[in-house]
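cron nightly-structures :: item 1 of 1
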Amino acid sequence: MIIETHTPQETFDIGKKLGERAIQGEVYCLSGDLGTGKTVLAQGFADGLGIREPVSSPTFTIIQQHDGGRLPLYHFDVYRIGDISEMDEIGYEDCFYGEGVCLVEWPELIAELLPEYAVSIRIEKDMEKGFDYRRILICRPHDSERERKGAV
């Protein structure tokens, strides 16, 4: 699916819709260059889960856990991962296969750890279409698995 947005609010709203439909155990991979809107989409996602606390990119902490919504949100930013073994040290498996939902920024850096059912979200800019223009590509492998869990 390809969605085009023209304002940060529209990008936030896409994240919010995804968060409203998210189910336990899902992993969403957010890729895109710096400044494309990954954090804005993540903020919308958290809002869609009912999380009211501020959400920022966990660049220096690698992971932030947000509770208070209908599901816990584990927000990863793995940009600063020096070695894949650091993911074991922070207990990524408990998050990926636990009670909540995960957002992973810079997923290509830990590709071998991601579940095969992870949802891929790529955000791209096109300055010729405007400063705030974003093209958001969402790829959901195994949609039938999602339907079976009742989250259409």
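cron nightly-structures :: done
The beta strands are 2-5, 27-31, 63-66, 73-77, 101-105, 119-125, 134-139.
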